[in-house]
Specification:
The protein is mainly α and about 500 residues long. It folds into 2 domains: about 240 residues, no CATH class; about 180 residues, no CATH class. About 85% of the residues lie in helices and about 0% in strands. It contains 21 helices and no strands. The longest helix has about 40 residues. It is globular.
Length: about 500
């Protein structure tokens, strides 16, 4: 076997193995978070979640400075040295201490901005997560670079479960919003402790500014892009918290959490694997295009029925899981699911730019899209939260066109070709959604029965449609599953 073919086969094997563990890690982490979030939502009230939502943008921005773009630079760099890694490690800790200190100083101003005095102690308590996380960033980055998601699965399960138990216990004892704060602090502590325990990498007493400077070109642009992304991904939380109320923000954050769970779980799982994999084939445009096409179709195969299905079953789902006190979040959830259809398409096209080292184009796109978000807020806020979400959908559509523009130039895979590849999967998902909606018009004893019937019908119809039309991504998954159960195949051929 030729060396190039052997290397390609090895990369494919590592990718499939990494995807499996990334799937398990992401599902485990999100699954634990989902269960814990549901229990806490039943114990607490929307305004208590709204208070934490008010701080999300500040925590996200400060957390971005921890990595400073060097994590992505470290993954993108083909052979980083121990000096590179150690220099970034110590830099992260320094930034973490400074950032946490600044957040503590800014706490009274944050509380005054929202006119919520309790935010001062909440902000200072949450600043502990910044310092704690700074000690585990490098370990996590190196595990990602080496496509080792098995260890990350263990870390997520242990940290999520232990912190969740603590948060639920405090909520049941009547600690209110502080149970959410303690949960976030403890998940950071347990995650960092587990990363140090399971990771073999240890820092040496090495620090070199030249090592940081070498990666600063790529890393600084990625930092600025990440800052823009974090600010504008969470700017709606700040606007809603300022202009409306903590309760309204609580409904919005719960709807956003539910809509983000399936699409970001799936997309994040694939993106974590494809970024280092795409980086290894960055000099092979044709191969990179095939990889992007396969990733997009696989993501849409799963994401589109989840988003459309969630939009249809939103009301019974909220009533069953969160109870009547959260029903006001249903319209927000349904609209956010529409935007969730596009999320994987954004992510994968941007992933290619990162893998190619084109952080300049990445930054340019981020700036343009953030300006569109500001325009959306300026126009729609006066008509309420639902109007802002409609604007989010419009800006997301325009953003997908912009993100795919450079894929058309660099890989000869423009938006028109992408749309043709993805259209059959979306049609099947829409047909499934119509059937699920029709089932919801029938009379059932309670919402539990309705939910069970709708989910069952949706799964059966979607799988049958994909099989009937022999969709490429579906048949690939089907064949891969079939190949992994030789005993079943042997039994059916006897």
């Amino acid at each position: 076997m030729r060396p190039a073919v052997k290397m390609a086969d090895n990369l494919q094997h590592r990718t499939i193995h990494a995807l499996l563990w990334s799937f398990l890690e992401t599902v485990a982490q999100r699954g634990v978070q989902f269960v814990i979030g549901i229990v806490l939502a039943r114990l607490l009230f929307p305004e208590q979640f709204g208070l934490i939502g008010m701080l999300t943008i500040f925590m996200a921005v400060i957390s971005t400075f921890l990595d400073s773009g060097f994590g992505a630079a470290l993954i993108q760099k083909q052979e980083p040295t121990q000096t590179d890694i150690c220099s970034i490690f110590y830099f992260n800790i320094l930034v973490g201490l400074v950032a946490a200190g600044l957040l503590c100083l800014a706490a009274p101003w944050i509380a005054a901005f929202y006119n919520q005095p309790i935010l001062t102690p909440l902000t200072r308590a949450l600043s502990l997560t910044i310092v704690i996380n700074s000690f585990g960033l490098i370990q996590n980055t190196m595990l990602t670079k080496h496509i080792n998601f098995k260890t990350q699965t263990k870390v997520s399960l242990i940290a999520g479960a232990l912190s969740g138990i603590i948060g639920i216990t405090l909520a049941a004892l009547g600690f209110g919003v502080w149970s959410l704060v303690v949960q976030q602090v403890t998940v950071s502590f347990f995650s960092t402790a587990c990363l140090w325990y399971f990771s073999s990498w240890r820092p040496a007493l090495i620090f070199n500014f030249n090592a940081l400077r070498e990666m600063f070109g790529f890393g600084s642009r990625m930092l600025f892009s990440s800052l823009l992304s974090q600010i504008f991904d969470n700017i709606y939380l700040m606007v809603i918290g300022k202009l409306f109320s903590a309760t309204a923000l609580g409904f919005f954050t719960r709807a956003k959490t539910l809509s983000d769970l399936p699409t970001q779980t799936l997309s994040g799982m694939v993106a974590r694997v494809t970024f280092p994999v795409f980086s290894t084939i960055q000099d092979e445009p044709a191969r990179l295009k095939r990889g992007l096409k396969k990733a997009l179709t696989m993501l849409v195969l799963v994401n589109s029925p989840m988003m459309i299905g969630l939009m249809v079953i939103a009301r019974p789902l909220v009533l069953v899981m969160l109870t009547e006190k959260w029903v006001a979040c249903v319209p927000y959830l349904q609209l956010l699911c529409v935007g969730g259809l596009l999320y994987p398409l954004h992510l994968m096209n941007l992933n290619v730019l990162q893998a190619l080292g084109r952080s300049d184009l990445f930054l340019r796109l981020e700036i343009i899209k953030k300006v569109m978000i500001l325009i959306n807020i300026a126009i729609t806020w006066q008509w309420g939260i639902s109007a802002m979400i409609y604007g989010m959908i419009v800006t997301s559509l325009i953003g997908y066109y912009l993100n795919s523009y450079y894929s058309g130039i660099l890989l000869r895979y423009p938006i028109r070709e992408q749309a043709l590849d993805l259209f059959p999967y979306l049609v099947n998902a829409v047909l499934m959604g119509i059937a699920v909606y029709a089932a919801g018009l029938l009379q059932f004893l309670n919402h539990w029965y309705l939910l069970f019937v709708q989910i069952t019908i949706g799964i059966v119809i979607y799988v049958c449609l994909c099989w009937l039309f022999r969709l490429t991504a579906f048949m690939s998954v089907w064949q891969a599953m079939w190949d992994r159960i030789p005993l079943v195949r042997a039994g059916t051929t006897r």
